[in-house]
């Protein structure tokens, strides 16, 4: 197994996650199989209980693991499925060591950071790195490891020491250290300054690690003299110093690395030059070029309570972007704080109230994502009501779906006190109730999480058609509450159709209003499985409906669901079986026609 460790200095938020993912993309394009691990030095067991304002969204994995949002980057970039063990935290490591001490596994030793904590970190990495994540049975060739935080943070010290020891454990030619540093430009002098990166690497070397590669975050390409200066003071060859400058879209980062021959430097350090080929990134190039040429916009109102921090809804944003590429539209997101839609805001902050409603009324589509807590709930219900009454395309996710039930009960079933017991435990009309297997006694790891199977009840529903008219799908969940099964018949009798359930047929997973342009609520989180080349079906439905392409999207989904044999002998869809020109809808042609180069546009696989 070969390892690439990505760490950073100076400040957080430099883009270590995107850098690690992009390195993985380039190595995968060279013909290597890649896996990923994320290390977070905080003492939480996982990201499940951390405020979105602190670390952005909680990314949910197939096995129910609640992880840092960077694991979402890895899955989207590399098209892999990670497990909870691919997310390492200081809390997990220390808890594991403590349990071993209590069992007597250390046979009376004095348990210390060195060697017990550092050994456990190394053992965990080696154990998880060999777990296949791409559907194959053998271990990957390269494991990309991202260390969160910055060099010099006291909580990161134990991990830096572990990697220093790890370099000797795995031996020369098996570990490549990539340091992401900041090279700012001060407006006063207009000169690229190397001192921040020099200092962070000096600190790293104090811990016993010297980087093999330096990736410099900056606004424009590094000057040759700047690279030479970094090389001199950091003891890294000029050929191993790369620019990570600002680019037009995130899909250009792997192309940026490829163009600078970063893969050649990494392959040389890892002694993989003889087994890797030249990177084939045609699909990434086509996608990046197509995105940059899109002109026609689609406006989506994102109604939530964490609108001030975009990372809170990172996967939702990426899923919207994937769907927009598929529909040939440029995404414009209008962030609408749900509290600003509420009547109370009209009195205390009329400007915010008017702005929020102006954004909502001007949107082509409305999305209410998941969330927790009572703040802003009434505003979300008002957004659902507006979408339902005005035939505006709507997608409600998790809490967003639960609030569609509350809104429908209040304004269609005429039950004004209808509510979720999460917000009103004494309501006489509980539309949403806590699931029997869940409780509110503890917060961490107490929800229904991970990949679950959903069965379609209505084959002709928009949701079923968007998924290719299959009988069932697997999506990821993270919730404690559900639509009250006792109210399902009332909903259906009045026009809110339950089109997807769990295997019992009782737990509501998907609802629709059939005579609405597009009004869908789902209990699961479809954004977690969206990929650049395989956008989420429901997000495609929302975007397509928002720009008048839903019929074409439904046609595409029907055409692309051609069966082929998979490894287990089961039937599954394969667009590649359709042949050239089959089912090329007006929507696809429109997406390509937005490109400046028609010939190139015809070859774009993502449109």
Automatic annotation (TrEMBL):
Membrane-spanning ranges: none
Keywords, in A-Z order: ATP-binding, Glutamine amidotransferase, Ligase, Nucleotide-binding, Pyrimidine biosynthesis
E.C. number: 6.3.4.2
InterPro entries hit by this protein: Class_I_gatase-like, CTP_synthase, CTP_synthase_N, GATASE, GATase1_CTP_Synthase, P-loop_NTPase
One of the protein's GO biological processes: pyrimidine nucleobase biosynthetic process
UniProt keyword ATP-binding present: yes
Cited PROSITE patterns: GATASE_TYPE_1
Glutamine amidotransferase domain ranges (all copies): 309-543
Catalytic activity: UTP + L-glutamine + ATP + H2O = CTP + L-glutamate + ADP + phosphate + 2 H(+)
CTP synthase N-terminal domain: residues covered: 2-272
A Pfam family recorded for this sequence: CTP_synth_N
Domain of life, per lineage: Eukaryota
Gene Ontology molecular-function annotations: ATP binding; CTP synthase activity; identical protein binding
Pathway info: Pyrimidine metabolism; CTP biosynthesis via de novo pathway; CTP from UDP: step 2/2
Biological role stated in the UniProt entry: Catalyzes the ATP-dependent amination of UTP to CTP with either L-glutamine or ammonia as the source of nitrogen.
Family: Belongs to the CTP synthase family.
UniProt-recorded name of the protein: CTP synthase
């Amino acid at each position: 197994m070969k390892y690439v460790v990505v760490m950073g200095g100076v400040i957080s938020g430099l883009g270590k996650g995107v850098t690690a993912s992009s390195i993985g993309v380039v190595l995968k394009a060279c013909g290597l199989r890649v896996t990923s691990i994320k290390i977070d030095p905080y003492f939480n067991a996982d990201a499940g209980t951390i405020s979105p304002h602190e670390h952005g969204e909680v990314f949910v994995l197939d096995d129910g693991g609640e992880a840092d949002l960077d694991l979402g980057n890895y899955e989207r970039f590399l098209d892999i499925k990670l497990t909870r063990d691919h997310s390492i935290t200081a809390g997990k490591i220390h808890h594991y060591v403590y349990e071993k001490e209590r069992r007597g596994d250390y046979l009376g030793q004095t348990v210390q950071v060195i060697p017990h904590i550092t050994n456990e970190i190394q053992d965990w990495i080696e154990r998880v790195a060999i777990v296949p994540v791409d559907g194959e049975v053998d271990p990957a060739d390269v494991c990309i490891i991202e260390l969160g935080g910055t060099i010099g943070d006291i909580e990161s010290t134990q991990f830096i020491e572990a990697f220093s020891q790890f370099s000797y454990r795995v031996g020369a030619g098996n570990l490549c250290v990539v340091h992401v540093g900041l090279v700012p430009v001060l407006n006063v002098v207009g000169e690229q300054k190397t001192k921040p990166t020099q200092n962070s690497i000096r600190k790293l070397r104090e811990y016993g690690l010297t980087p093999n590669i330096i990736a410099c975050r900056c606004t424009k390409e590094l000057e040759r003299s700047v690279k030479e200066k970094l090389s001199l003071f950091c003891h890294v060859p000029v050929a191993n110093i790369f620019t990570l400058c600002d680019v037009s879209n995130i899909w250009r980062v792997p192309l940026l690395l490829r163009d600078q021959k970063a893969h050649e430097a990494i392959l040389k350090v890892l002694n993989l030059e003889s087994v890797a080929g030249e990177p084939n990134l045609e699909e990434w190039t086509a996608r990046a070029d197509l995105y940059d040429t899109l002109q026609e916009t689609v406006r989506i109102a994102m109604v939530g309570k964490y609108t001030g921090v975009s990372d809170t809804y990172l996967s939702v944003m990426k899923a919207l972007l994937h769907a927009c590429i598929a529909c040939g539209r440029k995404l414009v997101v209008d962030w609408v704080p749900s509290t600003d839609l509420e009547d109370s805001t009209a009195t205390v902050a009329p400007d915010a109230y008017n702005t929020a409603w102006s954004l909502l009324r001007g949107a082509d589509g409305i999305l209410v994502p998941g969330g927790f807590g009572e703040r802003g709930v009434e505003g979300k219900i008002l957004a659902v009501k507006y979408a339902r009454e005005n035939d505006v395309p709507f997608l409600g996710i998790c809490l967003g779906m639960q609030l569609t039930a509350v809104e429908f009960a209040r304004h269609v079933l005429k039950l004004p006190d209808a509510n979720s017991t999460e917000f009103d435990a004494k309501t006489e009309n509980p539309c949403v109730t806590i699931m029997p297997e869940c409780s509110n006694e503890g917060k961490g790891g107490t929800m229904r999480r991970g990949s679950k199977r959903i069965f379609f009840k209505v084959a002709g529903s928009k949701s079923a058609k968007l998924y290719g008219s299959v009988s069932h799908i697997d999506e990821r969940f993270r919730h404690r509450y559900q639509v009250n099964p006792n109210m399902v018949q009332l909903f259906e009798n009045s026009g809110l159709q339950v089109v997807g359930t769990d295997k019992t047929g009782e737990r509501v997973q998907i609802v629709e209003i059939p005579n609405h342009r597009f009004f869908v609520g789902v209990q699961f989180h479809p954004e977690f499985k969206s990929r650049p080349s395989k956008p989420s079906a429901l997000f495609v439905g929302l975007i397509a409906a928002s720009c008048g392409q839903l019929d074409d999207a439904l046609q595409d989904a029907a055409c692309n669901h051609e069966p082929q044999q998979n490894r287990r002998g089961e039937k599954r869809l394969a667009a590649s079986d359709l042949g050239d020109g089959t089912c090329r809808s007006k929507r696809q042609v429109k997406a390509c026609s937005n490109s400046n180069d028609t010939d190139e546009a015809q070859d774009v696989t993502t449109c």
